[in-house]
Amino acid sequence: MRTLRVLTLLSAAVLLCSAAPGLAPLTCSEGNGPAAADKAVHHINEYHDHGYKFRLHEVQGNSVEQVDGGCNVKLQLDLRETKCHTTNPKPFEDCELRRETQRAVKANCTVLMTIKDGDATITKYECDTRQVNTNSEMVRICPDCPVLLPLNDSEGLKSVHEATTEFNKNTSNQHYYVLKEVGRISSGYIMTSGMNYYAEFALVETRCPMGSRIVIEACTPLCPDRARHAFCKSSYSSENGLLSNDCDFYPAENTTALGPDEKEPDCRHHGRRPPHSHGGPPPHAYDHGHGPLHMLTTMVMALLHMLAKEDALLIVMVAPLHMLTTMVMALLHMLAKEDALLIVMVAPLHMLTTMVMAPLHMIMNMVMALLLLVARVKGHFIPYGAFIHVTDS
């Protein structure tokens, strides 16, 4: 059943009550690591206007170079991505971290800072993001967890478009909303509904009044400080379409009412710009887990879905074989990936495994077809459930 819900509007008063505490003063001593890291994370989140907010996980390095009148500090920080999008006004300290099973993302950041006369200035920072665990590692940790997809994945974007269209049917909104950005897209296979896509995306309020006859995608967003935002999480099935779309509303920063003859200001500059030129965390990190094994798994799953759709008994028979072959292939792939010399050792085993597994798959398909025929003749049709989808990078 499709569920389309709009969740609570976050109160500005509540958010102000949980405002972040003041930063500790910085010195040029060797023990300034925690205070310097705190300032760096605040700075990164302040000027990071896309993707998600980050929290400090560990200070991996802290070097202090004494100079005239102060010092230069170089920090190596390990950050963790939170569930708070940058449009969420909640302080990053209060944001929930993603669990490993939710495809957690880390950012390795190098931060340069100058401290003079007690005044600290961040001159540059660079961050590189990736999943905390690769897809190969996730096969062992959580075989049936959804896999992160590129943000330009066609089916994933299709699900976002349908969710946005459904969102704009909510007549309680004063204006239409358009897509600001996609935060993350993941996918997983479910026997009952095929490939499922899970998207997280941010919407921004536009100038177009609700009900106006206009192509919504052509609507211009309001200025960043005057626009309300919505952050949505949707689920979409390749067979059944949009399944759910749950959204949080975030209030505008500037709620000053316009005068009778005033129009919304025209703003050319969207987003916050740092006073210095530097890099920042990219909005999304995914592991390229769509190699031959992923494609083979998807094809096999589609075939099994067609064969076993009528009888859960077949799923019980197929699941152990599918998991065994996938785990063996994943192990071989990981061994070969670590050291090129192992490829020579793995190749014969890989060929042998393939020669053994292929006939087994054919035999299983024949057995399943026979069982299906018998079940149909006897009229034994058992409800079926979800199947574990295992992928590998």
CATH architecture annotation name of the largest domain: Roll
Enumerate how many helices there are, as a single number.
7
Mean pLDDT level: 75
Structural class: alpha+beta
**Separation of the first and last Cα atoms:** 33 Å
Q: Give the total of beta strands.
A: 10
Portion in beta strands: 25-35%
Total of domains:
3
* Series of secondary-structure elements, N-terminal to C-terminal: EHHEEEEHEHEEEEHHH
Gross geometry: flat
Secondary structure: helix percent? 25-40%
- What can be said about the biggest beta sheet? 6 strands, mixed
The main sheet orders its strands as 1-10-9-8-7-6
- Output the radius of gyration: 26 Å
Poorly predicted sequence stretches spanning 5 or more consecutive residues: 6-20, 287-295, 304-316, 336-344, 372-393
CATH topology of the largest domain: Nuclear Transport Factor 2, Chain: A
Task: Kindly provide the name of the CATH class of the largest domain.
Answer: Alpha Beta
Please render the helix and strand layout as text.
Blueprint: E1 3-9, H1 12-17, H2 33-47, E2 52-67, E3 70-85, E4 105-116, E5 119-131, H3 135-141, E6 147-149, H4 154-167, E7 175-190, E8 194-209, E9 229-237, E10 241-250, H5 292-308, H6 312-338, H7 340-378
Helix pairs in contact: 5-6, 6-7
